[in-house]
Amino acid sequence: MKFPGNLALALLVGAVSNFALAYPLDGYEETGIRRVEGARLANEGLALGGIQPPGARLATEQVDLRLLGHPDLTLPPADPDFTARITALLAEHGNAYGIAVLDLTNPDQPKYAEHRGDYRQNVGSVGKLLAALGLFQALADTWPDDLERRAQVLRDTIITADDFAHSDHHTVRFFDVENRTLTRRKILDGDQGSLWEYLDWTLSVSSNSAAAMVMRDAMLLRHFGKDYPVSEEQLHAFFKETPRGDLTRLFQKTFWEPVTRNGLDLDQIRQGSFFTAQGKKNVAGGGNSYATAHSLMQLMLMMEQGKLVDEWSSRQLKRLLYMTERRIRYASAPALKDAAVYFKSGSLYKCKEESGFKCGQYMGNVINYMNSVAIVEQEVDGVKLHYVVIVISNVLRKNSAVEHQALGTAIHNLINERHSLD
Fold first, then answer.
1. Angle, helix 147-156 to helix 311-321, in steps of 10 degrees
2. Rounded CA gap, 329 and 210, in Å?
3. Are 115 and 90 contacting, i.e. CB atoms less than 8 angstroms apart?
4. How far is residue 8's CA from residue 260's CA, in Å, rounded to a whole number?
5. With contact defined as beta carbons under 8 Å apart, do 135 and 220 qualify?
6. Closest CA to 323 of 262, 408, 382
7. 321, 308 Cβ separation under 8 angstroms
8. What is the value of pTM for the model shown?
9. Which domains does the chain possess?
10. Which has the closest alpha carbon to 196: 330, 30, 397, 347?
11. Best label site of 10, 34, 102, 170, fewest CB within 10 Å?
């Protein structure tokens, strides 16, 4: 459906400044993501929101898939020397990491490093990649030959937040395009935005509420097909009247089946539930959530090749991961300022009382999960660096956000050094 004229000003358009925001700054006209227009205006000093680093200023057509000409590329065997150099960066905490680095700077001779690539843990909000995968797979299955219809559904479908969005500590941006005003708060019942905007909030600021709404509608699209979107009355009746076992099976068809259809192993990567407490109550997913560095690397490689669902879906997902505001965790490494970074992270930590230790954010002493997925592109001295990094860690009592930031600098310097010597 189309936005009513007086509704457009109320749509959510962004995310808090302490989270990385995605999608190219010139994408508003194509997508209708109002947060993007707010970020563009802020970058020009015409609205609040901050200035982007050089690497975040690519135009939409520059944010593209880099391996379309290498459809047969698979992950090569781990190179012993490269792996040793990457592992050395982890120092004494090597056994608390799973890490994979794929250097694609010369795609005809890729170099791969992997350390504990099969180490599996809950990767937190990185699992929102699979929520997006489920939606894009449902779009492709419903309109396999109609890309404009898929884009129209993303752009014109209005989602109204309901109890699936309960609850979340993340705040998102309300940007009034006409008046160029910005406010920030949590998503509340009744807040409206397009499906593309909810995807943007899901992957940019990692809003659990937005992710739950995206997952809700991915299930509706999978069930209703070309009759989607349905009315508020229909969708609420559907979730109320459908037996719970049937909803669980629909959840798995929506979010598990695309994993295997895209050549990945459910034993290595899976999103097992909604991202909100009420979402979990409304629909039981039926399993745990986890991933490995190896499986996430496979996912990113397929996306760069245009093989994740299809080329159009892969391109849209990569653009949704492009960072266009303040960078955090791994992506906040100062060495990456001039680089284009495509990023998703997720964390989970837990503490108990311990003499001499003070618990803090990302500093758990029971668990301290931090997970980062990053694609980095930068031209340095005529060499177009292009590499993918997956980091899964559980280093106790350390600020894992700072640890990943430091690792981001170290890996970038290592990659740059490799090619400066060529």
1. 30
2. 21
3. yes
4. 38
5. no
6. 408
7. no
8. 0.91
9. 80-121+314-420 (3.30.450)
10. 30
11. 10
76 has pLDDT over 60 = yes
Work out whether the CA dihedral 172, 174, 177, 179 comes out positive or negative. Answer: negative
What's the token pair of residue 276? 């909100």
Q: Are 200 and 320 in contact (CB under 8 A)?
A: yes
Radius of gyration of the chain (CA): 21
What's the N-to-C CA distance of the chain in angstroms? 54
- 388: which 2 tokens? 């993918």
What CA–CA distance (Å, rounded) separates 277 from 163?
10
- Taking only the tens place, the pLDDT of each residue in 361-405 is 999 999 999 999 999 999 998 999 999 999 999 999 999 999 999
Report percent pLDDT > 70 for the chain: 93
CA 217, CA 320: separation in Å to the nearest integer? 18
By CB atoms closer than 10 A (0-12, 13-18, 19+), residue 7 is exposed
Per residue in 284-343, pLDDT (tens digit) is 999 999 999 999 999 999 999 999 999 999 999 999 999 765 788 999 999 999 999 999
| Cα→Cα distances 363→201, 333, 366, Å | 26, 19, 9
Number of Cβ within a 10 Å radius of residue 58: 19
The burial of 241, by beta-carbon neighbours within 10 Å (0-12 exposed, 13-18 middle, 19 or more buried), is given as exposed
Mean pLDDT lowest for which of 40-54, 95-109, 165-179? Answer: 40-54
pLDDT tens figures, 163-202: 999 989 888 887 777 888 888 889 999 999 999 999 999 9
At a CB cut-off of 8 Å and minimum separation 6, what does 138 contact? 218, 221, 222, 254
